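User: quick one, fold this
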Amino acid sequence: MKKRIPILFLVLVAGAAAWWFVGREKAGRAGNLVLHGNVDIREASLGFRVAGKIAEITHEEGDAVKAGEILARLDAEPFQRELAEARAQAESLRARVQLLETGYRPEEIAQALALVREREVTLENAQRIFKRQAELLETRAVSQQDRDDAEARSREAEARLKSAREQLGLLQAGYRKEDVAQAKADLARAEAAMASSDLRLQDATLLAPTNGIVLTRAQEPGAVVQAGATVLTISLSQPVWVRAYVSEPDLGRVHPGMPMEVETDSRPDKPYRGQVGYISPRAEFTPRNVETPELRTSLVYRLRIIVDNPDEGLRQGMPVTVRPIASK
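Assistant:
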């Protein structure tokens, strides 16, 4: 019994030592994770949304630009003329809509009303003459033809009065609703054309979409370019990330949001800080430009480390070394 106690004690000591050694080895491996990759900076090829003749390019290759800064302009005269024509057409149709909604002028209505009164008087006189001729015909003082002529003039005066009253009613009622609706539709179409012309004029000025650096100046003033043709290419200041790769055994040691240090050969003592933003769900072979000879034929997973404090020290394609930041 006394011999079993030392043996049990030795087993416990050996187990504790093994557990400590394995745990330390794992911790050492976790702290020594080193990834390799390259700086990846987005580029934007900029061009005009409209075709035209380049009048000015304000920046050279290597110039820094800020968001909203003017980079180039097209000759604006054709677009200004197009806008002026569209604006004039819209103003003309707007005046027509106002005319139709207001109705006829008071002077026109007053003139039609005077015509109605004039023809009322004419009808009364024609009816009086017709009545007199009918009475005289009974005494044979006039001929039947005279009586018929008086009746015809009375009916004609009555018809002319009816026509004048109908014309007055049309003027007082104003224009038809269908005419007003059509005029409004024509105005809306003209205003849309004017807005399109104004947008085309704005598109004749090329603005920087974000902060960056001009990489390529592909055109020069005087060149006639089609819509969408590249005029300038800029490298964006944000976002800047590192494309790195992790082997399958180490995949469980990284996760999105994990803080990382990014070291460059030019300033190894001043690493950049970043965090893992993306882990590819699909395995691939390590690209040849990654300086990890032992892993060049291995399956790896691509990572994207977003750099928190990028500056001009990070350049497109620059090789970097990435290490986890130890948690305190």
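User: anything notable?
Assistant: The longest helix spans residues 106-138.
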